[in-house]
UniProtKB/TrEMBL annotation:
Designated name of the protein: Glyoxalase/Bleomycin resistance protein
Database matches in Gene3D superfamilies: 2,3-Dihydroxybiphenyl 1,2-Dioxygenase, domain 1
SUPFAM superfamilies from the UniProt entry: Glyoxalase/Bleomycin resistance protein/Dihydroxybiphenyl dioxygenase (SSF54593)
InterPro entries: Glyas_Bleomycin-R_OHBP_Dase, Glyas_Fos-R_dOase_dom, VOC_core
Annotated ranges, domain VOC: 3-128
Originating species: Azotobacter vinelandii (strain DJ / ATCC BAA-1303)
Leader peptide range in chain numbering: none
Length: 131
């Protein structure tokens, strides 16, 4: 079981970000699990939950002011998934914020890629296993 249950953050447009995350996270096995309409949320915005095995671990919603400096990292077991995420995220309209590679400043096995989503949120996928 993961210590991280779920993460949620505000985006400018829930539908634009939904399309981005559906494509960008597909290589990791994440998909949209649930959507909650604006009539059922506290902020009056739309919410989308993404995850694996029927449980949403990443939530996005709109109708509030997006924060700056938001960062989320997904852990994977294989470096090829880091590469696949990076390409899928760029194809989905994300901006490169660090192409796949070893980040030795963290440790010799920290293989990661970074992409900014449509709202500038820094999304990372990392594999920390030795080659």
């Amino acid at each position: 079981m993961s210590i991280l249950d779920h993460v949620e953050f505000v985006v400018r447009d829930a539908e634009v970000s939904r399309r981005f995350y559906e494509q960008a996270l597909a290589p990791l096995g994440f998909s949209r699990i649930i959507s909650v309409g604006s009539d059922r949320t506290r902020s009056g915005g739309t919410r989308h939950g993404f995850g694996k095995e029927g449980y949403p671990r990443l939530w996005i919603h709109d109708n509030e002011l997006p924060g700056t400096g938001t960062h989320i990292a997904f852990a994977v077991e294989d470096r090829s998934l880091v590469d696949a995420f990076h390409q899928a995220a760029l194809n989905a309209g994300g901006s490169d914020n660090g192409e796949p590679g070893v980040r030795a400043r963290y440790h010799e096995h920290y293989y990661a890629a970074y992409v900014l989503d449509p709202d500038g949120i820094n999304v990372e996928v990392v594999c920390q296993r030795p080659v």
